[in-house]
Design goal:
Layout lengths: L4 H10 L8 H13 L3 E6 L3 E8 L4 E7 L18 E3 L5 E3 L6 H17 L6 E8 L7 H7 L2 H4 L5 E11 L3 E2 L3 E4 L1 E10 L3 E2 L9 H19 L6 E10 L5 E2 L2 E10 L2 H21 L7 E8 L2 E3 L1 H15 L4 E2 L11 H7 L3 E9 L3 H8 L21 H16 L2
Parallel strand pairs: 3-6, 3-7, 7-18, 8-17
Antiparallel strand pairs: 1-2, 2-6, 4-5, 8-18, 9-16, 10-14, 10-15, 11-13, 12-14
Helix pairs in contact: 1-3, 3-11, 6-7, 8-11
The structure holds zinc ion (ZN) (2 copies).
One zinc ion binds next to loops.
């Protein structure tokens, strides 16, 4: 090994970058990949990096890592803690931290790239390493695909990736089937006609309209979705008006929708739009509501048979009892965009990054202690050893399983 993964990790951790601003990280990644003999393309989907290693006949395996940090003020107290600042999409100066552990993902994928390049005699096929921007904002994978990812690079036969989690290092969480929720953020602007608060008859009151929409939305999951399915519709923001005696001309609702099956997702979103339109018509609104989607994540679905192969391989390298099935999680991911676009299986697992001593507590109580900081916490601090080593092993062994 020539790459010093601990040094790379600490450097990335100290220097996190916000979504679509990962230029320093991308430069480091591209430099190492070139030294390892990969064919490297930068600027894919703005700040993404793709490294391809062609090694004769055989399948094509895509290994994916995401690169972005979060607007969080780090409070871990680590000697390599971040004090970085960045500018968010609204132009605001914010602290930046690798609070989701994407620095672990980048480091492990570089380590795996190095090892697979060194072991070229032992496998055949094509390795495609993807260093994706902007997972947190949900646009990174789709932006790479929109930038011609599938046409410009070898098409994968399988997509593999991992996310560090607070579970004890040495363990892997792998849920076959739906593993993470779909998430959709949407803003609905309801249009009314403004006027004096004393003369509602001369207006279409968007506050009353909004109240009816919010009320009616509570029936989407309870009346239109099967008891065997799961979905959440939350109105997290309502904005309208400027003064008590003025009827505003519009109201804006900010919604967050989660679901675990594409059919349910489609049905819930259609119902939300239908209700906004129908209530607008019921209020005699001057025009139809405007619906704007952002921060969208598909359901992350692990292919059951590919997951079984991955689980078997991971047990063989990390230990017979190392692979757990945590069931579906309510968090969201966009790694599935690559597999869906290529029409191939996805396997995405959670890499234990917590103190290995936690294993004893988990074994006794059957659950993680609540006080252990998890992803997005200002205290989230994966242990370096053995997390990085395990992450490299997991990527190398599973890639080898699917390569020729
Ligand atoms: Zn995250
Ligand atoms: Zn993440």
């Amino acid at each position: 090994m020539t790459l010093d993964l601990t040094a790379i990790y600490k450097d990335l951790h100290t220097n996190p970058e916000l979504s679509f601003q990962e230029t320093r990280t991308a430069g480091i990644v591209a430099g190492h990949l070139r030294e390892l003999g990969f064919d490297v393309t930068e600027g894919v989907g703005r700040t993404g990096v793709v490294g391809v290693l062609s090694n004769g006949e055989g399948p094509t395996v895509l290994l994916r890592a995401d690169m972005d940090g979060l607007p969080v003020q780090e409070q871990t107290g680590l000697e390599y803690a971040s004090t970085a600042r960045g500018t968010d999409p609204d132009g605001k100066d914010v602290p930046v931290m690798h609070a989701c552990g994407h620095d672990v993902h980048v480091t492990c994928l570089l380590g795996a790239a190095e090892q697979l390049a060194a072991e070229k005699d032992a496998w055949g096929g094509t390795l495609v390493t993807v260093f994706q921007p902007a997972e947190e904002a949900g646009g990174g994978a789709s932006e790479m695909i929109a930038d011609g990812f599938l046409d410009r690079f070898p098409r994968p036969d399988v997509v593999l990736g991992q996310h560090v989690a607070p579970i004890p290092a040495g363990f892997i969480g792998l849920t076959p089937g739906p593993a993470m929720a779909a998430a959709d953020s949407l803003n609905i602007t309801l249009h009314g006609t403004g006027g004096h608060g004393s003369r509602p008859e001369a207006t279409v009151d968007p506050v009353y309209l909004a109240a009816n929409v919010i009320n009616r939305l509570q029936g989407v999951v309870s009346r239109e979705i099967s008891a065997l399915d799961t979905a959440v519709v939350t109105v997290g923001q309502v904005h309208s008006g400027t003064k008590n005696n003025i009827i505003a001309d519009h109201a804006v609702l900010g919604l967050s929708v989660r679901s675990y099956r594409e059919e349910v997702r489609t049905k819930v979103l259609a119902a939300v739009e239908r209700i906004a339109q129908a209530e607008s018509a019921a209020s005699n609104a001057p025009k139809e509501p405007t619906v704007e989607y952002f921060e969208r994540f598909p359901v992350t679905v692990n292919d059951p048979s590919a997951s079984e192969r991955v689980a078997t391989v991971l047990r063989s390298v990390l230990g017979e009892h190392s692979v757990l099935n945590p069931g579906p999680l309510s968090g969201s991911e966009d790694v599935g965009e690559f597999a869906t676009a290529a029409g191939v299986p996805l396997v995405y697992w959670f890499l234990g990054g917590g103190d290995p001593a936690l294993a004893e507590i988990v074994a006794k109580t059957g659950r993680m202690p609540d006080e252990v900081p998890s992803n997005h916490s200002p205290f989230f601090a994966p242990v370096i050893d053995p997390t990085l080593g395990n992450g490299v092993k997991a990527l190398v062994s599973t890639a080898r399983e699917f390569l020729g």
